[in-house]
Amino acid sequence: MKSFKFILLLLLSSHTFSNSILLKGGMVHSGTGEQAKLQDILIDGDVITNIGNSLIIDANTKVIELNGSPVTPGLISPMSNIGIVEINALDITRDDESEILKAGFSIYGAFNPHSTGIPWNRSNGLTGSITSPSASYFPLFGLASYFVLDGNLNIKGKKDIAMFGRIGSSSGSRAETLSILESLLELGIQSTNMPLEEVLEMRMADQLELQAQDIAALARLVKSNLPLVLETNRAVDILQALELKKKYDLNLVLSSVEEAPFVIDQLKASNTPVIIDPMDNIPNSFDELGSSLELGKILDQAGIKVMFSTQRSHNYHLMRQGSGNAVAYGMSYESAIRGMTKTVAEIFNLDKRGSIEAGNYADIVVWDSDPLEPSSFPKLVLIEGREQDLSSRSSRLTERYTNKEDKPSSYKH
Amino acid sequence: MKNIAILSASLLLISSCSNEFEFDFSFGGSEPYDSNFKDAFVSTYKPMESRPILFKSANIYDGIGGELLNYDLLIVDGKIKEIGQVISRSDVEVIDASNKWVTPGIIDIHSHMGVYSAPGVRTSSDGNEATAPVTAEVWAEHSVWTQDPQFALALKGGVTTFHVLPGSANLFGGRGATFKNISQNTIQAMKFPNAPHSLKMACGENPKRVYGNRMQSPSTRMGNMAGYRSAWIDAADYKEGMSEKNPDQRPKRNLAMDTLMGVLDGEILIQNHCYRAEEMAMMIEMSKEFGYKITTFHHAVEAYKVADLLADEGICAAMWADWWGFKHEAYDMVQANIAIIDQARDGNGCAIVHSDDAVGIQHLNQEAAKAMAAGNRAGFNISKAHAMKWITSNPAKAAGILDQTGSIEIGKNADIVLWTGNPFSVYSRAQKVFIDGALAFDINNPKIQPVTDFDLGIINPTTTRVQ
Q1: Which residues of A fall within a CB distance of 8 Å from B369?
Q2: Assembly ipTM
Q3: B466 at the A interface (CB within 8 A)?
């Protein structure tokens, strides 16, 4: 077992404190899908300025020796509850659902930078999250936003960047759901030609009790290329979704897609990216009978863009274990890294995020060993060039309860 | 009538005497009361056909802390026959295990496979008899669907034995039972022979939420406690009544009381879902109040806060590597939980990694890897050989079957997994899985990959369900 030592050389100039960092000699996975390379990364302020070998630095640069440690871009979860749900079983701590708003329900205003899930996931290598509303009975749940997980009250991110929804089994008929979904898209189209009040008075809008926010969001879907993430599993439902994409020229992303292998050619031809939970091979419903641990491999080998989610609430960083399992079952390693990083940034238009490339924000994680091994852990997390504290409630409790001093635990801090 | 009167009178006289003389009142049907009904629903399991097999040059984790590099392992007649650096046998099938790893079959002490089967639809919901807070009368095994497609998936993850429990809606959820991971047509044929029953108990939020929402007791943690204690009082009373030599003087048979009495008699093992440290301490206190033992705390998210207590009491804790945040009582998670329990009192703790999940059960080796790494980051020095205990011999101990399986030791059941690489790596897969020496899963042979009835011809009538 190699030991990874950091040698921090802090060189201060006589006048100013340096904002420049050189991450030296790491095995860099850029997130672009390219093979990893032993490289240096030069960071100035909040951005990466240069990547390569034998980079020129000045006396003000803080050099951090990585001794071959793996380096990846900060991981980005494409769908999570981070910041809007504190404890699942306690409704009063949840801000992920709306009774009144539907397609236009934006969770942005509920994001809590002080949520305990943030330090925990950040210390595990997650630097960004697309936080989305939770599933509701309605086919469209609302709008997700992207957040930088630095815990700063001055929230950095991007508001209302995608809509989330679902087609599949329900207490009613999914044919009805599909029909309603089409009507909603039609309303979105009509809203660009009609005054809002008229749209809201239309029968379907009235029946479904749609609000102004809902109509505005629907318009963005059909006119402004707003990404639509639709959860769906059954093979034929995937085809239905692809039909909708074609008909309305949607910027479609499909999630879950457990029966994708049956329609792999159509998926590939439609150039639709997907979000999968590679560890979920359980036929949880009659829609998921085709679930398999080989899903990641099959999609990757077909050239489809794959991103990763996980079912484990509060542990969105476990998409790393998921992608590791996908690799164990045949997905390519760099596709797995890319799927947790650059692909997310690309698909959701997260400017300058998701990859270690010059000009991008320095959201970078240095790992103690292979990041796809569940036993590995970050040694260093940078968000926009700033080293993040890896403390969390979990680390504080660990310290307290491994402290053998003979006094009540409440005095161990 | 007259005879009974005479007999009763005799009994009264005898019982008022000293205890110097033991009288045997064996009038037909006066067997001592057996609450465990050892003849009821017994296992009819028969091992599949097996051949002797010699694993050559394997790297072995024996499940009891040992690491044997480049060793040979011989299994014959379903048992582990020999372990040695070089075993010479020319008359048996040889498996070249060089650069591969061999471990005991993985054991999950907390599963709801079969009682919360896939697909997870309303009619598959058979794990919680949530109609009263005390349902010690139900037996989880009676809810098992033998064709649950989840069994085969767990086998593929190296799980040869699993313990099925009722859920945690109730104070006393009912009996749990241990199963061999071979799907059969009857529950009895899947049951692990000579394995004790367990009794599922639950602390904390679940029972008080389920019944509190119905404006019934319990609706608080104190209500939970009173609920357990009242039941134990009834059970002690029943046990005393059942100890009457004259069956006519015994109380009417009661299934719930049978189960509780089985615990008091030390025959049924308590598996107690409990998250909070102080609740675990209270449950231990109560066990002393009524004279029984707690075998394992399950989930035990705060076990690390009372690790010494658990080690001192010889109680195991079955935990997740990192689940948290879904309930208030699961808020104080530490990744080093399993390690802290394991290392308590100089390494005398009993730590187990459990799943409570159909996905998790397939990757218990990975969960153990996370827990081990977290423990080592927290300052412990836990080897892979040692961590293997958490998913083999420790759960075997908690299930009361350590004498039969859970480790690679001579004489034990040949429940063995051959891995493609080190089992603690995400890239490793179970290549071959043996149960009682019979090959139950072979990654390279679709014919030796179980397909339950549900998997057969579904989606496409000419194929089996993709797994």
Answers
A1: 373-375
A2: 0.94
A3: yes
